[in-house]
């Protein structure tokens, strides 16, 4: 089941919310919400549910064993994490290397495995107390708002909320508005851009190459940030405060700034559980370079086994090092608009590697961007796409900045009042439902990871 689905919007979500709200006992609320979350996940595949349950049981029991035997905390921790990484690698990488093996890919395994490792690491490093309630732990790992595609929540951020969260009408309202905003990003922007991407994928013109690159850049942003907004909104509706995952990355003024804004949860996870334990930036120049390259190599591999992801990860690792040692001060002297433009182009180049099936296709696409290997400057397909999707691209750029929030806060709310503001959100939700009913495909790009 996915969020942008009529059954979810008008069946699962309202029924689950009403059921949980009617229960007064916090433990009963958790039991009901965990049961609903497992049912939600099982809609994808009962076999996938088995993997989630086994992973959750292993993590829960491993933490108990780690605390029960203080002298063997470290070997238990290492063994537990090693098993979880091995399971992730089995499902994520073995089918890529051995295509004859028919191994399904459990949805969300990359995300909930990292959540499980976060729990074990936080217990081991004493960032949070042991969770003895299996229901509360299960809810942390499998809450339906984030189990499929994150955001990856570190356990110490969620620990207090598992048993002591408050769900007010105000918080529920905020969650509904944020969910609607995410739904608009997905249905109105990402899904329509996906049509343009399919149209342009085989085009070999210079204009087509640029349109394809820009379309994917915005499609990925609205698809993933839309999901994240919906997940965070759902969390609020059930009393959780899940940290934001995107903060307008396409207005970043440096590579470092970009990764403070894009997929924040993953960047934070690697910082807290890999980069800092390796010594971070305080371990000397050589070790700093090593740590950055390790983190970004792992970030690429986390997305998949293809060399394109490895190159994409090392591309950003190299850029961060170049920026840190050579370009930071001269780059800061440039006008803000030029810095934003440069980083936007840097991101576009990165997404070429990220979206390509192999390195040959990636370099071919990069070549066409500068006029190498093109069939024409502008094909009929590219011109058709520009005329039909040009306005959508302009709107995508505008809505990827802070423009919407400023219009919402300074114009609509102040001038016309909250009633008009809420009416616009209701209208936007209705438009999304119309789009959903008329669509044939509504999956999220990051389900593949």
Give a structural overview.
- This is MBOAT family protein.
- With 449 residues, this protein is an all-alpha fold.
- It has 2 domains: 6-165, no CATH class; 171-437, no CATH class.
- It has helices spanning 6-22, 26-42, 46-68, 73-92, 94-97, 109-124, 134-142, 155-158, 169-200, 206-237, 255-258, 264-275, 285-303, 307-332, 336-355, 359-369, 380-399, 403-438.
- The longest helix is centred in the C-terminal third of the chain and has 36 residues, at 403-438.
Summarize it.
With 449 residues, the protein is an all-alpha fold. The chain has 18 helices and no strands.
Q: What Rg is obtained from the alpha carbons, in whole angstroms?
A: 23 Å
What is the number of beta strands? 0
Structural class category: mainly alpha
Can you tell me the overall shape? globular
Percent strand equals under 5%
Main sheet properties: none
Order of helices and strands: HHHHHHHHHHHHHHHHHH
So how many helices? 18
Summed up, the domain count is 2
**pLDDT averaged over residues:** 91
Report, as a whole number of angstroms, the end-to-end distance.
Answer: 17 Å
Low-confidence stretches: none
Residues in helices, as a percent range: over 70%
Protein name: MBOAT family protein
Organism: Dubosiella muris
What is the strand and helix layout of this fold?
Layout: H1 6-22, H2 26-42, H3 46-68, H4 73-92, H5 94-97, H6 109-124, H7 134-142, H8 155-158, H9 169-200, H10 206-237, H11 255-258, H12 264-275, H13 285-303, H14 307-332, H15 336-355, H16 359-369, H17 380-399, H18 403-438
Helix pairs in contact: 1-2, 2-7, 3-4, 3-6, 4-6, 9-10, 9-17, 9-18, 10-15, 10-16, 10-17, 12-13, 13-14, 14-15, 15-16
């Amino acid at each position: 089941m996915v969020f942008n689905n009529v059954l979810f919007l008008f069946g699962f979500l309202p029924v689950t919310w009403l059921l949980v709200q009617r229960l007064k006992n916090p433990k009963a609320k958790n039991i009901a919400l965990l049961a609903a979350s497992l049912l939600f996940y099982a809609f994808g595949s009962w076999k996938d549910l088995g993997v989630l349950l086994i992973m959750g049981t292993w993590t829960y029991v491993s933490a108990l064993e780690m605390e029960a035997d203080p002298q063997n905390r470290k070997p238990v921790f290492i063994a537990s994490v090693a098993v979880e990484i091995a399971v992730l690698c089995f499902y994520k990488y073995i089918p890529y290397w051995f295509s004859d093996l028919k191994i399904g890919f459990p949805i969300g395994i990359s995300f909930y495995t990292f959540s499980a490792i976060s729990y074990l690491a936080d217990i081991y490093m004493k960032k949070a107390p042991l969770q003895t309630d299996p229901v509360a732990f299960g809810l942390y790992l499998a809450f339906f708002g984030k189990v499929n595609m994150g955001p990856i929540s570190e356990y110490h951020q969620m620990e207090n909320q598992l048993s002591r969260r408050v769900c007010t009408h105000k918080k529920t309202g905020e969650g509904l508005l944020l969910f609607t905003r995410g739904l608009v990003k997905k249905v109105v922007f990402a899904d329509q851009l996906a049509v343009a991407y399919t149209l342009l994928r085989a085009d070999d013109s210079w204009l087509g190459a640029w349109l394809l690159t820009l379309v994917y850049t915005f499609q990925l942003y609205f698809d993933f940030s839309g999901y994240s907004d919906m997940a965070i909104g759902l969390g609020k509706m059930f009393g959780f405060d899940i940290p934001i995952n995107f903060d307008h990355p396409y207005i970043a003024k440096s590579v470092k700034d970009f990764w403070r804004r894009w997929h924040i949860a993953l960047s934070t996870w690697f910082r807290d559980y890999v980069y800092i334990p390796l010594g971070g930036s305080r371990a000397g120049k050589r070790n700093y370079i090593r740590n950055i390259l390790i983190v970004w190599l792992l970030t690429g591999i986390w997305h998949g086994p293809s060399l394109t992801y490895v190159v994409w990860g090392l591309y950003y690792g190299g850029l961060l090092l170049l920026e840190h040692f050579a370009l930071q001060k001269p780059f800061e002297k440039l006008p803000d608009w030029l810095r934003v433009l440069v980083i936007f182009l840097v991101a576009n180049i990165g997404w070429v590697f990220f979206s390509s099936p192999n390195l040959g296709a990636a370099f071919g696409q990069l070549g066409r961007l500068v006029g190498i290997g093109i069939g024409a400057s502008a094909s009929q397909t590219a011109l058709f796409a520009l005329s039909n999707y040009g306005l959508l691209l302009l709107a995508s750029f505008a809505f990827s900045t802070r423009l919407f929030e400023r219009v919402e806060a300074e114009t609509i709310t102040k001038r016309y009042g909250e009633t008009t503001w809420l009416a616009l959100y209701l209208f936007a939700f209705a438009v999304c439902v119309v789009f959903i009913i008329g669509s044939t495909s509504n999956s999220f790009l990051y389900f593949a990871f």
